[in-house]
Design a protein that fits this description.
two-stranded antiparallel sheet; 10 helices; 3-stranded antiparallel β-sheet
């Protein structure tokens, strides 16, 4: 029921509610309770209101450093740009290496531009370790230079052949990523290159479980012995408790 009191407060709410002020702040302006303001919002959905989500940054009680490391081993940081907030799955976070380059260039990177980490450590986002590639093809050329596999003649003939869907897809990177191994490997690499006190590694030990450390050590030992774990060896190792 829209009484004179409600009509007056609705007009005041339309005037002051900008989608940023919280209900408790607007309640002080209206001389009402925060619950009353929330009820007006519910009854008048056309009035702007703040996003219904946990607060970002230092306003969040769980805030640590504002940085996280995703499953690919890249560092994500909170964006200060309003047009990037809460518009992707990372809740207002952007890739730190792209932000470093954008801040240096004074412009946003094009979607086609790719940032290359010179030392292979995705957590090392110092400017001197970053290089801009104009396309993903150029980036792949830099990444794969000197690492191309020596395919046999029989192996080359198999390219392009139809793979029966009954067979399991062999994707070692995806398997390692899904189980957190890629992230753990990048953290260990960063610790060896930059030291455990590097800012982006603050409280990141939570990603290094005993099981992941065991798997990373096993992979490293195989590489040191110039051998490697097969996809099925890795799958069996990851399935162990």
């Amino acid at each position: 029921m829209k009484t004179k009191r409600n009509l007056r407060n609705i007009e005041l709410l339309r005037k002051h509610s900008d989608g940023i002020l919280k209900s408790r702040e607007l309640a002080l302006i209206l001389g009402e309770t925060a619950k009353y303001v929330q009820d007006l919002w519910r009854r008048n959905p056309d009035i702007p209101r703040p996003l219904q989500a946990p607060p970002l940054g230092e306003c969040n009680p769980s805030f640590v450093s504002g940085k996280i490391i995703d499953l690919d081993g890249y560092v994500l940081v909170l964006s200060s740009s309003p047009d990037r907030l809460r518009k992707d799955r990372n809740y207002g976070r952007i890739l730190e290496h792209r932000k470093v380059i954008e801040d240096h260039l004074g412009r946003k990177l094009k979607r086609s531009e790719v940032v290359h980490h010179k030392n292979g450590c995705k957590i090392d986002n110092r400017f001197e370790n970053l290089e801009v590639c104009q396309s993903n093809g150029e980036h792949l050329k830099m990444e794969l230079s000197g690492h191309s596999p020596n395919w046999t003649i029989e192996g080359e003939k198999n390219f392009g052949r139809y793979w029966n869907e009954a067979h399991e897809r062999i994707d070692t990177y995806r398997l390692l990523k899904k189980n957190g191994v890629i992230r753990a490997q990048q953290i260990l690499l960063a610790q060896s290159l930059l030291g455990k006190d590097y800012l982006s590694l603050y409280k990141m030990e939570r990603y290094l479980t005993p099981k992941l450390l065991q798997i990373c050590n096993e992979i490293k030992q195989r590489m040191d012995n110039e051998s490697r774990l097969s996809f099925f060896d890795l799958k069996e190792l990851l399935s162990q408790n």
